[in-house]
Amino acid sequence: MPRVKGGVTTRARKKKVFDRAKGYWGAKKNQFQMANEQVRHSLKYATRDRRTRKRDFRGLWIARINAASRQNGLSYSQFIRGLKIANINIDRKILAEFAFNDDPVFTEIAALAKQALAA
Known about the structure:
The protein is mainly α. The chain has one domain: CATH 1.10.1900.20. The chain has helices spanning about 5-20, 30-70, 75-85, 90-100, 105-119. Helix 1 (about 5-20) packs parallel to helix 2 (about 30-70), helix 2 (about 30-70) crosses helix 4 and helix 3 crosses helix 5 (about 105-119). The protein is rod-shaped, with a radius of gyration of 26 Å.
């Protein structure tokens, strides 16, 4: 059986790893074994953190809604309960956007929630 030289294939495989490892610190960017290991870890972290990002944003939205609703005399839980009673279906992302950028609209929504709680 003749000898097969795999230089082109090996170089292509290594190039793919080194392209992904660009910008890493130290030997992780230019030594194949270390770069390969770091790229595998990085891909694993990226997958994990795409899920974590969703949790982090929800926490941020809730914090913003809570701060704005307290300025309008309601706690976060009272505000959300008032929205449910008033049958106002706005998700937290949009509520946080109103709380952060559009105070008069959020004040109106908070007033509707307050009325629903009182009734």
